[in-house]
Amino acid sequence: MIEFRAVTKRFDDGTVAVDNLDLSVAAGTITVFVGPSGCGKTTSLRMVNRMVEPSSGTILVDGVDVRGVNPAQLRRGIGYVIQQAGLFPHRTVLDNVATVPLLSGWTRRRARARAAELLELVGLPAELGARYPVQLSGGQQQRVGVARALAADPPVLLMDEPFSAVDPVVREGLQDELLRLQAELDKTIVFVTHDIDEAVKVGERVAVFRQGGRLVQYAGPDELLARPADDFVSSFVGRDRGYRRLSFVDGGGIEPAEVPTTRETALATAERAPDAWTLVLDEEDRPRGWLPPRSGPAEEAPGGGVRPGGSLYTRGTPLRGALDAALSSPSGLGVVVDEDGRYAGAVSAEEVLAAIRRRRDEAGAGAGGAA
Amino acid sequence: MLDDLSRYLGSESTRQLIVDQLVQHVELALLPLVVGVALAIPLGWLAQRHPLLRTSLLGVANVVYTVPSLAFFVVIPGVIGTQILAPVNVIAALSVYTAALLVRPVVDALDAVPGHVIAAATAMGYRPLRRFLAVELPLAVPVLTAGVRVASVSNISLASVGALLGIGGLGALFTSGFQTSYLPPIIVGIVLVLALALVVDLVLVGLRRLLTPWARAGGAR
Amino acid sequence: MTLSWLFDPAHWSGTDGIPVRLLQHLRYTLVAALAATAVAVPLGLFVGHTGRGGVLVVGGSNAMRALPTLGLVTFLFLVLGSGEVSALVALTVLAVPPVLAGTYAGIQDTDAGVVDAARGMGMTGWQRLWRVELPNALPLLLGGVRNAVLQVVATTAVAAYVGLGGLGRFLLDGLRAFDYPKMVAGAVLVAALAMVLDLLLALLQRAVVPRGLRLAARGRGRGPARVVERGRTEVAADAAMREGTE
């Protein structure tokens, strides 16, 4: 557990970076510090491993005041990941990962063996170990950065905008990877970002900071989207927050309906239903697309008139996926699949909205204006 | 010491001599700066465009730069057929040094011009030469002036070596002081060389500011 | 003419023979370059690492770069008296700025994120300096040493004017005696020495600069030998040096 008690950081030029911060980060969770630039989120993070010293107040890691610990010693016990990874360009990937074990006095052989394990853990092939950082892609460098931070198996991990420098697709992959790792490792992670989408995706708890180093809201991501504490948070959280909040609304109440289906292999002889769209499935019941009703436009596209389908909604996942599936489908019906991707029914946007209404009625008050 | 100095500088003819030598020094050191820049820009432009020329030109520049000045002054007449003790030898040698020093910064600076800027200029219809003069060269000015500043300091210092071959400039104060075991001219010479280097440096900084108004607007140095 | 002078066996023996003069030149070069390195590298590391005293060192070093070699040599000769000591002092003084600039620029050039990561992982100041900053500074540091050696070789030739031995003797004695073949032969020998030493140092630089950094330099779209070349070192070092003063 990490605790900030009345922590203030005032720089020499008089600017207040962090203003009387009281906050505790629960063990084994990912806590995100988010806010615009100059809000003190990075400074707060860097005070945990004494990269920055507070002007007043106390920071405890597992009940121990960090100021009582030698900085170098303290930092070897806390993982640290930064933007651009900060890998040592003059050392191989394997030696980069082995850095902290070596600093802590491990033998070279043992440190390297440990480093090899970690490369595997973060999903990098072993042969990358012999390369130099410059020979890796941005995403790979960032993975190495995470592996390096985990090398000495520290209970606490500090991540300062770790994925900000990579492109959006790679970033999403890295975020998923982090969540997978965390499920396995159960670290106490403090994660700094300026990207609210990233914050609500990876954070179990999100602390929103504003300029002047003030903490304005500290809550779960669902709560943050549903009930922003003030106008600042509301505008920072941004447009579409009602829609995005559906990511946190359980989809258990959805009842998929049956629709006409046909096999991909039987397409040539398939009868088109008179007024309904027909869902095309492959041999393993996976959705392939939609066949328009006979009354509809009769243009003959390649593939015998089959239209590509929309996004798929996996049964039991949050409602955002269900709504998106319905809205993106040519038939207006979102295809519901089971965990193995097999057809399990279809759902209309109206049905999703009804499910949202039911949820809201159950909860009593205040789910933000969905759709 | 100070008495010596004031006695030395007290003479009208000495002062006139020093001024003459200063003027000659400026010519010996700064003419090559102009010639060197004029040589380095087209050479760098060529080198940046052709990989083969790049390797060979930069290689030659590198080797030229290793040749000690005194040796260079002496070898030049054999190469270009001038009189062995002519000032033009010093000017030619320093010009070559300057060009050799500047080719790389020019290439570096041109390399550093963002691809999207060049693409935009090309898309607007600039032909290569025009684009070079209107877009790439101005953007290269900061790096180029950094190189010119190094070259100017080096030239001003090296020009005094010419005195060993009887070629004037402030270096003559050092040889005459040494021959007569008399410190004042040497001190005056050193001070004037340092002062000249400083003044030229300030002028170059001013020139860069004048040529790159966008750098100031952006809050950069 | 010059060739026949160079290949005349008479010029290859005795106290004024080529081997003796060459060894003298090498000895001065080695002593001055080592002395300058011993002074400038620790100073450059300290200033670069701590950021303290930067303005002073940078300002002083810049002024020293403008010092005219001949002026300094004659000045020290008259002040310290004749002999090798005054010449060696002059040579060393002139070799300090390039090494200092190279070292300081090398440390400053180290990626800020890399240094931050090193701190964040719990490296002490010394560990950071030795394991991160110094290896990263090596290309520019050694570039500085190469510049210094060239400077010393050239200045040693100039110092023949005040009676120092070395290859410069042929050049100046030849000049005095209107013996042009001898003079040009001296020039050729000095130039050859400079080139050979520079080549050897380039090879050394290649051998000791970490592979990852060489690859990094290449990765930036530059030629393989990029890091080890001079113009860039000189200008980069100079720019870094000035940053503190402007």
> What can be said about the biggest beta sheet of chain C?
none
**How many strand units of chain A?**
16
Strand content of chain A: 15-25%
Helix content of chain A: 25-40%
Low-confidence stretches of chain A: 366-371
Oligomer: heterotrimer
Number of helices of chain A: 13
Distance between the termini of chain A: 38 Å
Judged by helices, strands and strand pairing, the structural class of chain A is alpha/beta
Order of helices and strands of chain A: EEEHEEHEHHHHEHEHEEHHHEEEEHEEH
Please report the number of helical segments of chain C: 11
Class computed from helices, strands and strand pairing of chain C: mainly alpha
Distance between the termini of chain C: 52 Å
CATH architecture of chain C: Orthogonal Bundle
Q: Give the overall form of chain A.
A: globular
Number of domains of chain A: 2
Radius of gyration of chain C from CA coordinates: 20 Å
CATH class of chain C: Mainly Alpha
Protein name (chain B): Osmoprotectant transport system permease protein
Family (chain B): Belongs to the binding-protein-dependent transport system permease family.
Domain ABC transmembrane type-1 (chain B): 22-204
Transmembrane segments (chain B): 29-47, 59-80, 86-103, 156-174, 186-207
Write the layout of secondary structure elements.
The complex is a heterotrimer of chains A (371), B (221) and C (246).
Chain A: E1 2-10, E2 16-25, E3 30-34, H1 41-48, E4 56-61, E5 64-65, H2 71-76, E6 78-82, H3 93-97, H4 99-103, H5 108-121, H6 138-150, E7 156-160, H7 168-185, E8 188-193, H8 196-202, E9 205-210, E10 214-219, H9 221-226, H10 231-237, H11 241-245, E11 261-263, E12 278-281, E13 287-291, E14 312-314, H12 319-328, E15 333-337, E16 343-348, H13 349-363
Parallel strand pairs in A: 3-8, 3-9, 6-7, 7-8, 11-12, 14-15
Antiparallel strand pairs in A: 1-2, 1-4, 4-5, 9-10, 12-13, 15-16
Helix pairs in contact in A: 5-6, 12-13
Chain B: H1 2-10, H2 12-49, H3 51-66, H4 69-80, H5 87-112, H6 115-123, H7 128-158, H8 171-179, H9 183-211, H10 213-217
Chain C: H1 2-7, H2 18-50, H3 54-65, H4 69-80, H5 84-109, H6 112-120, H7 125-159, H8 168-176, H9 180-208, H10 211-219, H11 230-243
Helix pairs in contact in C: 2-5, 2-7, 3-5, 4-5, 5-7, 5-11, 6-7, 7-9, 7-11, 8-9
